[in-house]
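Students often ask why we bother encoding 3D structure as a string. The short answer is that it lets us treat folding as translation between two languages. Here is a chain of 171 residues written in the first language.
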Amino acid sequence: MQAWHAHEQELRRWLCKQGLMREQSEDFLQEMFLKSLAQQQKFCAIENPRAWFFTMAKRMLIDQFRTQKNWVELDEQLPEPLIDEPLPVDSLTVCLPRVLKELSEKNRQAIQLCDLDGMAQAEFARITGLSLSGAKSRLQRARVALANQLKLSCQVKFDDAGEVCCFTPRP
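And here it is in the second language, the structure alphabet:
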């Protein structure tokens, strides 16, 4: 197994970089070696043994992570969720209908159908006669226009994550 010896150390380093402990890496290597031996004469026909080894290692890692279950014990006395105070974005329902009326018809239609009514963008494209990419662009422009109008009309402020943090509704 000349090909195995040529790539064993590189495979070992790669497995360790993937987060496996040394013992796990050795187990993986042993299993890979046995799988390559099981190929018998078919292994000789492999044009790029290095790629074959790394593909096998990657698949084995995926299989391990897929079957690995990380369980976290929960405290039996979980605190009650804080639901007394509504999120700032929930309070925007006072401001949103007025701001929607201030948008252009095209922007209002895109926001109403896709974001508020839950229409798929492909369906929106079909009923408006736009291509799918055109419909997506229109919706993106409408969302930007809505955000700008909310900032202007209701003094909406966004935090660093882009979430509504506060606003002052217009009288």
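Translate back mentally: Residues 3 and 49 are 6 Å apart (CA to CA). Keep this in mind for the problem set.
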